[in-house]
Design a protein that fits this description.
The structure is a single chain. This protein is 21% helix and 28% strand. The chain is of the alpha+beta class. The protein has one domain. It has an eight-stranded mixed sheet with strand order 6-5-2-1-17-16-15-14. The relative contact order is 0.17. The N terminus is likely disordered.
Length: 274
């Protein structure tokens, strides 16, 4: 289950999570109401789903969406089908590809601590570790030990804004891909689909929800917050490791959804707050 799979209705999700600060400009919302459907048809995927907004230093934020084409369970792991991919937009109309990043690029990009700049052409520089000096040969008897030459510093690694953006999205998804327990079932071919008998019996309890890392009830204390409005029969869930992630479950419509509105950075103070 990924974050995108829950957002089957952008309007419903934005309406439910508006009190949490997940609000789009009117013109962007109007544009997405049309562009998300058109992009799904263009790509030939099951859905093109709004994922969230990444804020930047310049204020020129990125709107993120995902082409969703289903998932399968293979050897106990959830594997995306071909066609699953992330895209970004500046206006909610035109969507540009975000290419997948390698493990090596991810490790380098994780060293960046600053916000996204808002300039897709920007390149971050990440310092390479200084190589260890080669050991000097043992001096002959009566000779002085030769001086150890310090190695020349290596040129910095270059990480593009798009690569940094994709690294942040992957990190958020890995930590917050949340769904109610029992929402999805696997057919004989390994495909994931919504359980037609799905319903959350105790929506006010953290144990009713799970991520790939396990049930929320067993998560690190202070990582998740669950708030249930018994009058509206609406549950909202927030993540404190990545502030800006919110999810909801409505017992009235039996719908779920989630969004991320933030700068993409992890809350490094979480460990000290619990």
């Amino acid at each position: 289950m990924t974050a995108g799979e829950m957002n089957q209705s952008t309007l419903l999700t934005l309406d439910a999570l508006a009190p949490c600060g997940c609000v789009l400009p009117t013109e962007v919302l109007a544009a997405m109401d049309v562009s998300l459907t058109l992009k799904a048809r263009e790509l030939g995927v099951k859905a093109f789903l709004f994922w969230g907004r990444l804020s930047t230093e310049s204020g020129a934020d990125y709107y993120i969406a995902r082409a969703y084409n289903g998932t399968k369970k293979l050897e106990g792991k959830i594997v995306p089908n071909p066609g699953n991919k992330f895209y970004y937009s500046r206006d909610g109309v035109n969507w540009l590809d975000l290419e997948p990043v390698t493990v090596e690029t991810t490790e380098r990009a994780e060293k960046i601590q600053t916000m996204l700049t808002g300039d897709p052409a920007h390149v971050f520089e990440v310092a390479q570790p200084v190589p260890e000096p080669e050991p000097a040969p043992e001096p002959a008897e009566g000779e002085e030990a030769p001086e150890v030459e310090e190695p020349e510093p290596l040129p910095p690694w270059e990480i593009t804004e798009a690569q940094y953006m994709m690294t942040r999205i992957n990190a958020i998804n890995a930590a917050t891909a949340l769904a109610p327990e029992g929402m999805f079932v696997t057919d004989p071919h390994g495909n994931h689909s919504v359980n037609p008998m799905f319903v959350v019996h105790r929506p006010d309890q953290a144990s009713a929800y799970a991520t790939p890392q396990g049930n929320l009830a067993s998560a690190v204390p202070g990582k998740w917050g669950v708030h249930h409005d018994s009058f509206k029969r609406l549950t909202t869930i927030r993540n404190f490791e990545f502030p800006g992630f919110f999810a909801y479950y409505s017992a009235v419509s039996n719908t779920v959804g989630n969004l991320y509105f933030g700068d993409g950075r992890r809350n490094e103070d979480l460990a000290f707050a619990v």
